[in-house]
Design brief:
It contains 15 helices and 19 strands. The chain has 488 residues and is of the alpha/beta class. Helix 8 packs antiparallel against helix 10 (339-354) and helix 12 packs across helix 15 (475-485). The structure holds ligand BES, manganese (II) ion (MN) and zinc ion.
């Protein structure tokens, strides 16, 4: 969808969206339009339950006396109380209401006091994403019609400010694309190729195959992929936008392109969802696209472990012992606890090679995090209060919310093992925490935070900023985290 900013030009021929404050009379152009339309807008308001509450919409089709083909009223509540994210969601509500309306163009009149034109644009664009490349027979009548949204604003620098946000949204859309792809199309090899496309933005990309990883001793990651006919990969992305020689910040992602559970096979029902078990890697890759796209002034390294967890003839078995790159050994008690094995080697490799200031990993690591937090917050695990606070703040600012959960040595004991240095599962309780404790053993005390995004990368229902499907969760969160704390 195309977004533009312009001073209002009348008449508006497509759809026009007015922002309405709660329990306040129409003002400005909305009032003028109502007058031209012979009071149709105020009549519609009194005939309905629309009172301008935040999130409400009211649509009038083809009102007489004005050129617009439809008028959309969007409630904003009390405009002066809205957060940046509220404005983004208001913009998204316009797209959600008009995407399949029949109108191909819309103007959002951003004239209420305090309206954030850039935020409205960001939301309008975010909500326009659709993954429909495999739908060859969708009837025309069901396809989206909205192609252009203009934000009518007097603010002259909105378009320039929006450029950087647009780059971040391009990153979000890449993440949604990757998450939505089925696993026969997106496997470790094709995923690595997609990552190679970031080179056009100035990101250096390096891909390690099984031979290189064997040399490095990455027995934990390689063990997960050994049941698959697809070669496991480790992709490394480097963006040097900061000062030369400055230690980078780093992001590490779990990229299990499909998680059958391996020999500890998952039940069939719902297993198709495990195509998005590469969500951590998908988010990290989208983030790199965002940062490079807006030329972020920071040095960043990203590492993603790409494997397919399959129950093949060569698959690893419960009871196997593997040696990780760190030298620590692991007894595999459940081949379905594979994400931590992939991350163990990816984390160790990242700190060993790049000596980063911080490491943040993202992973669809545990079903338990969904039991704990549902789909509203991702879980964060860190010993570092500063990182926790920075992430929490970025979460509130972007709507990609996080909630901190504990790490503690008493949980760490739960993964101690008789046979090897550790086992890959804890007991019955605290499944997300024992998984985090496991990862902690591979951080070599570099300031680190683990983000369990199993509950947030995919949505079974429409959300304010995304249709049912991949949400792109985490890209805007981490872009903001970087912008607020590590640039300039
Ligand atoms: N990829 C799953 C976690 C997951 C579950 C993500 C549901 C999204 C939705 C992970 O590899 C896994 O299977 N975890 C196990 C761990 C257990 C065997 C200790 C789990 O959560 O059941
Ligand atoms: Mn698993
Ligand atoms: Zn998994």
């Amino acid at each position: 969808m195309q977004i533009s900013f312009a001073e209002l030009e009348l008449p508006i021929s497509g759809a026009v969206a007015f922002l309405a404050e709660k329990d306040k009379p129409l003002t400005g152009l909305a009032a003028e339009t109502d007058r031209l339309a012979g009071g149709a807008v105020s009549k519609a308001i009194s005939a309905s339950r629309f009172n301008g509450s935040n999130g409400q919409t009211l649509e009038l089709l083809a009102p007489g006396g004005v050129a617009a083909e439809r008028i959309l009223l969007v409630g904003v509540g009390e405009a002066d109380k809205l957060s940046a994210q509220d404005w983004v969601e208001t913009g998204a509500a316009v797209t959600a209401a008009l995407l399949g309306s029949g109108s191909s163009e819309a103007v959002i009149v951003a004239d209420v006091v305090g309206a954030d034109a850039v935020g409205l644009a960001e939301g309008a664009l975010m909500r326009s994403y659709r993954f429909d490349k495999y739908r060859t027979k969708e009837p025309e009548a069901k396809k989206p019609t909205l192609k252009k949204v203009a934000i009518a604003t007097a603010s002259g620098d909105a378009a320039a400010t929006f450029e950087a946000r647009k780059a971040v949204i391009d990153g979000v859309f890449l993440t949604r694309d990757l998450i939505s792809e089925p696993a026969n199309i997106l496997h470790p090899e094709s995923f690595a190729e997609r990552i190679g496309e970031l080179e056009t933005l100035g990101v250096d990309v390096e891909v390690l195959g099984e031979a290189e990883m064997t040399k490095l001793g990455m027995g934990a990651l390689l063990g997960v992929g050994q049941g698959s006919v697809r070669e496991s990969k480790l992709a490394v992305m480097v963006w040097n936008g900061g000062k030369k020689g400055d230690a980078p910040i780093s992001f590490v992602g779990k990229g299990v392109t499909f998680d059958t559970g391996g020999i500890s096979l998952k039940p069939g029902e719902g297993m198709e969802q495990m195509k998005w078990d590469m969500g951590g890697a998908g988010t990290v890759v989208g983030l790199m696209k965002a940062l490079a796209g807006r030329k972020a002034k920071v040095n960043v390294v990203a590492v993603v472990g790409l494997v397919e967890n399959m129950p093949g003839g060569n698959a690893q078995r419960p009871g196997d012992v593997v040696t990780s790159m760190s030298g620590q050994t692991i007894e595999i008690l459940n081949t379905d606890a594979e994400g931590r094995l992939v991350l163990a080697d990816a984390l160790w490799y990242t700190q060993d090679r790049f000596k980063p200031k911080i490491m943040i990993d993202l992973a669809t690591l545990t079903g338990a995090i969904i039991v704990t937090l549902g789909h509203e917050h991702a879980g964060i695990f860190t010993d570092n209060d500063e990182i926790a606070n920075q992430l929490s703040k970025a979460g509130l600012e972007t709507g990609d919310k996080v909630w901190r959960l504990p790490l503690h040595k008493n949980y760490d004991k739960l993964i101690d093992c008789q046979v090897a240095d550790m086992k890959n599962i804890g007991g019955r309780g605290a499944g997300s925490i024992t998984a985090a404790q496991f990862l902690r053993r591979y951080t070599n005390d570099v300031p680190w935070c683990h983000i369990d995004i199993a509950g947030t990368v995919w949505s079974d229902k429409d959300l304010p900023l995304s249709e049912k499907g991949g949400t792109g969760y985490g890209v805007r969160l981490l872009d903001r985290f970087v912008a607020d704390n590590y640039e300039g």
